[in-house]
DNA sequence: CGGCTGCTTGAACTTGTTCAACAGCGGTGG
DNA sequence: CCACCGCTGTTGAACAAGTTCAAGCAGCCG
């Protein structure tokens, strides 16, 4: 059940058995089962829990006063959530479930314990944050410079590889529970146009959809269509190479912070 | 000379004289004077210095293979830079000077010392990171949902308030060294369209430009035009209210990281 | 003076939006 | 069981927004 999280973190650094057990322990916390289309966090909420997404898909989103809504990112199993709330400052964006999901609350104390006892886990968490900030820069680039077709192809590549890394693809087939409304919100176009663009990718023989499954028919071509650069997904390689570096205690976390700040 | 930085940090939390002295000390590090239009960091560079922007304007930017370029954020005096490089992982985006600038290198040791000795300064740094991540979410929303005119007005509001907070506006006049090419890169439109949109704002009596100065003629109206929500700029208020909270050592930095990760 | 950079303009074109209608499907209640 | 509803996906046509190309202009610097 918690494989996604373990796979996710393992993709950044090798975890020992002790690390894995520590994770199991961490996730024994309060567990929430959430239906699809539920609002987990509203703009303005104050939260004080740290959470992990164990199962299901969520999206972060932010509204304009007049109702226009942008999807900021898609959260997949193994992702870290809601730390924004842990500052006791009001959230400036919302979090909504796309599918049925399972979320686990973790206390600050638990996280701190991990930071102190398992440098590798700490490092892996750190990498997740670097990764997320790289993702958000990639989205900025997409929204600002790519065409709708490129953005759509890029979104699919991103999701494909992220799912791949947590062992949730097989033979180029992946879950794809996003409605065209959500796709439109993510790539910054109207629902109607999202439809036409998806259709275009299907007609071009790049993808195939059946229900809530999506099959990538020609990944290299899809990546070229998207001007997709897989480097940014491979934080782990860059980081692995330096994993022998001396541990830097607090400095670590300052670094993460800054990195993540775009 | 270092007033911008002090003003910036003070806007988040009240600094004692000791804090100010610690800052002065911090900034006695290696100092770089940079001309306008210089590349400080290239995509792919590996850096290991932490830096502060003391004077001048910079921009972060990211290229697509075919040359299209998106500005990711504008850095103003007092901003934190380049921590991305401190991970020894390759930068996934570039950093370029817009005006003549002054940048100071800071060692990891110095930052760590601050974290250990001055909870207030630590808190203020933390707030800067939260702020930066809120900014990047706001940019995502802009690029995805606002029209070019709204985005342009929003950019001007953002810069106006950020400059205001470091004492660099007076009577609604601010420096505005951005060429229309950079404005276009930031709001995701062509240079030609950036020109027409700026012109439109001028004709509407919202702003006035003269050389590299810009005067905001009707701030409330400009903000309405931009669908500008000033909440996100006021991290400090949210944070001030909790500044008596018990210090949480390492947890702090994990929080920053996550927050900043969008 | 010439050459450069940045700003401005017009006109044709491409991309994406909006509105409106309809089809398919699963669920629900009678 | 069927009728109906709401949600998602699909389509066409008119329209609005932004791009591209091409030219010209203004100011600045050597």
Secondary structure elements and pairings:
The structure is a homodimer of 262-residue chains.
Chain A: H1 3-10, H2 17-26, E1 31-34, E2 39-41, E3 50-55, E4 58-63, E5 69-75, E6 80-81, E7 94-97, E8 101-106, H3 108-117, H4 119-145, H5 148-165, E9 169-170, E10 173-175, H6 180-187, H7 191-203, E11 207-210, E12 213-216, H8 219-226, H9 235-240, H10 250-260
Antiparallel strand pairs in A: 1-8, 2-7, 3-6, 3-8, 4-5, 4-7, 9-10, 10-12, 11-12
The first copy, chain A, binds a DNA duplex (30 and 30 nucleotides) through helix 7.
Q: How does this structure look, described?
A:
Two copies of one chain form a homodimer. With 262 residues, chain A is α+β, with helices and mostly antiparallel strands. Helices cover 45% and strands 19% of the residues of chain A. Chain A contains ten helices and twelve strands. The first copy, chain A, has helices at residues 3-10, 17-26, 108-117, 119-145, 148-165, 180-187, 191-203, 219-226, 235-240, 250-260, and strands at residues 31-34, 39-41, 50-55, 58-63, 69-75, 80-81, 94-97, 101-106, 169-170, 173-175, 207-210, 213-216. Chain A has a four-stranded antiparallel β-sheet. In chain A, strand 4 (58-63) and strand 5 (69-75) form a beta hairpin. In chain A, helix 4 runs parallel beside helix 10 (250-260). Chain A is globular, with a radius of gyration of 18 Å. The two termini of chain A are 33 Å apart. Residues 238-262 of chain A have low confidence and may be disordered. At the A-B interface, strand 5, helix 3, helix 4, helix 9 and helix 10 of A face strand 5, helix 3, helix 4, helix 9 and helix 10 of B. Chain A binds a DNA duplex (30 and 30 nucleotides) through helix 7.
